[in-house]
Amino acid sequence: MTSSSQRLSGDDSAPETPAGLTRFNTSADSDALAALHEVCASSAWGSKLLAQRPYATTEALLLASDAAMAELTAEDLAEAMAGHPPIGRPKPGDPTSSREQSGMAGASEALKAEMLELNLAYQDKFGHVFLICATGRTGEQMRDAVRERIENSPEQEREIVRTELGKINRIRLTRLVEEAHA
Hints:
mainly alpha
């Protein structure tokens, strides 16, 4: 059986570790935690992933993310959601937010206005932003999702949000560890 250190060192029998994963594994705790916070604003989630370094593969990191997400409390989820802007209003100057919400970029003014109204109604009901893994979705798909989900109970919605956050975290972690540069 190949040891973790052999896999990290580029042993010929193991796949090559992406440069970004090696950088994440070997960076100072404070730098790694800052990178994790950019992925997900939950400090509990970030601490759990940090404590399990080093990761032999990207998949191992993603599985650890999934496990940490499953353990988050309602308060931890609220902290994570606080790091996400409403759909249709990406954070100014934030390329990640803009990229993830690109499905709304070309939306009509009518659709943008409807999303704003739906976002506000959703926030009034649930006390947090409507959260969806927007990557690859059109503005209409996101609108339809908020229309459907606004009918959920708070408990149902919390578990859907947990699932959506997990998807977002997987995308962001993959991007983080596949980047060649810091």
